[in-house]
Write a structure and sequence with these properties.
about 230 residues; alpha/beta; 6-stranded parallel sheet
């Protein structure tokens, strides 16, 4: 049985900003950072101001929180969820909303759907509770487009390099629950989500993202454009 997910609650006020917010979701090793960087180059070539960022860790404070939640001592699921929500609140307030107000296109490697899938579903904290926490933290800001890069967890694990972080060390069963819930979230909000096979070639995936995103873009800020990156 597919897990139940709450319906989208978009805010009219949050659709009034001139910029666009694109989130990239999926398991670790699905290629989110690669697609973020490809999008950044394409959007810059089109003349948009582009802000490339990530969660957690898109700000100086966020990097401290990232180190704590992914590489620090073990924490209980509720503390983990609150650390992610703290990062998201600061990230949106200090970086994302100002960029959207300028008319920039913000592309983030992970956003609130990761918390719903990882902490809400796989950690069994409740997807409604975790979604509501993130919506409160961000004052209701939802992406204009969420790209879900879907990949078998075993393949994703084989792609990863370096020492695994706390979430990457979780079992394949844990990551299978994450994947199942990501797909359920996408099925519940087809107008916001684009689901792509992350096993495809990066340029093939990038072309599909461009095709879906192009009609949603605002007019470019300038012919030359500019690009900012938070890593």
């Amino acid at each position: 049985m597919s897990p139940e997910v709450p319906a989208a609650v978009p805010s009219a006020a949050d659709r009034a900003h001139p910029g666009r917010l694109v989130s990239l979701e999926g398991g670790d090793g699905a290629g989110k950072t690669t697609q973020r960087d490809l999008l950044g180059a394409w959007l810059t070539d089109l003349g948009h101001e582009v802000v490339l960022t990530r969660e957690p860790g898109g700000t100086a404070l966020g990097q401290v929180l990232r180190d704590a939640v992914l590489h620090g001592e073990d924490v209980d699921p509720r503390t983990e969820a609150l650390l992610y929500a703290t990062d998201r609140a600061h990230h949106v307030h200090s970086l994302v909303r100002p960029a959207l107000a300028r008319g920039a296109v913000v592309v983030t490697d992970r956003y609130l759907d990761s918390s719903v899938a990882y902490q809400g579903a796989a950690r069994s904290l409740g997807d409604e509770e975790i979604r509501d926490l993130s919506l409160w933290a961000t004052r209701g800001l939802l992406p204009d487009l969420t790209v879900l890069l879907d990949l078998d967890p075993a393949i994703a694990a084989a792609r990863r390099t370096g020492a695994p972080d706390r979430l990457e060390r979780e079992s394949l069963d844990f990551h299978a629950r994450v994947r199942e819930h990501f797909l359920a979230l996408a099925a519940a909000e087809p107008d916001r989500f684009l689901v792509l096979d992350a096993a495809a070639a990066p340029q093939e995936i990038h072309a599909a993202v461009r095709a879906r995103l192009a009609p949603l873009l605002p007019a470019p800020a300038s012919a030359a454009g500019s690009s900012g990156t938070a890593r």
